Amino acid sequence: MQFSSRKLLTIGHSYIVPLNRRLANEMARISGSDWDITIVSPLALKGDLRPLQLRQDQDDRCVLEGVSMRWQQSTHVMMYHDRLREILQQKWDLVHCWQEPYVVSGGQVARWTQPKTPLVYFTCQNNPKSYPPPFNWIETYSMQRAAAWIYAGQTVANTLKQRRHYDLPTRHIPHGVDVELFAPDLAARQKVRQQLEWDTGDVPVIGFLGRFVPEKGLELMMRSLDQISQPWRALFVGTGGMEADLRSWGARYGDRVRVCTTVRHDQVPHYLNAMDLLCAPSQTTKSWREQFGRMLIEAFATGIPVIGSDSGEIPYVIGDAGIVVKEKDQTAWVQAISMLLNDPDQRNVFSKKGLDRAHSTYSWSVVARQHLEFFDSILERSNSLMSLY
């Protein structure tokens, strides 16, 4: 007897970036003919650095559907046009929504998914919040419609399992990293350092990757570097409102500090390779704590030792593969950075541990397989429930 492929629809804003489609493409590769996978992505987004346009990539293994968006000023209110409704009216065995269930677009997916089709959300919300209307109504509606949900980390589970309507089948599956793209690369290291007009000497480079905003701990990092007596250079890669503050501070150190705001996503591995250690000094606020820390697993895969604060999910992501420091303990930050600057052998130890953790826990092949196994279990459960009627 010949079986037809099951049809999976996966929807997400982030799919507009080809690298972020690696999850769906890896699921397609692993599943072979078992799953027929279609990706829904925005046709265009404003983007943090520059406008983004959906384009087919040579590595895409899935059908790619573009849908226009409106109200892009905020991810909370951003909406899909009716083309998504048309797509969701087709026959799907399972719909996977890589968006929060309380945002407007997440509610659209719940409303337009056919009643008998299992709907699975992927959520990163790890901060206890009381949403105002209409977002609390959207969350309730979405989770009542959902068949299951996936959480990115332990702090997400600790937060959401206490909320109403989340008593559904669930699974912990982390974000993934492309361990082929993010990998140790001596040539890239040398090329970037030459572009930055740094020699290839022994002065270690302390790196930061992410948004230039207060909650990412840039003020703490600058104050900590001010107190470090050993030779160092600092490389900041990202963009955000604190750019002027960073440049003003960096001007005091001349060519020892570089602030790079035009690095494309596909160039990030090269800039990580130019670093000797990565700092992630995230600072918890009343409304935010680090949800995951993708820069950590990208550094792991590149063989770069990491120091992270104990904000949100960071300690769980790092495990024993790096150093975790109390987020507001500046003395401890100075000590941790100084220790790694002084000890190349210890940097090598953490480099190897990070590489092992990236490949065993966070590689897309591992993460994609976990998704498929969970989807299989949801379909088995759904079929069992239907057989009772």
Automatic annotation (TrEMBL):
Keywords noted in UniProt: Transferase
Domain (Glycosyl transferase family): residue spans on this chain: 192-354
Domain Glycosyltransferase subfamily 4-like N-terminal: 76-180
Keyword Disulfide bond attached: no
Domain of life: Bacteria
Gene Ontology MF, one: hexosyltransferase activity
InterPro entries per the UniProt record, alphabetical: Glyco_trans_1, Glyco_trans_4-like_N, Glycosyltransferase_grp1
Name assigned to this protein: Group 1 glycosyl transferase
Natural source organism: Leptolyngbya boryana NIES-2135
Taxonomic placement: Bacteria, Bacillati, Cyanobacteriota, Cyanophyceae, Leptolyngbyales
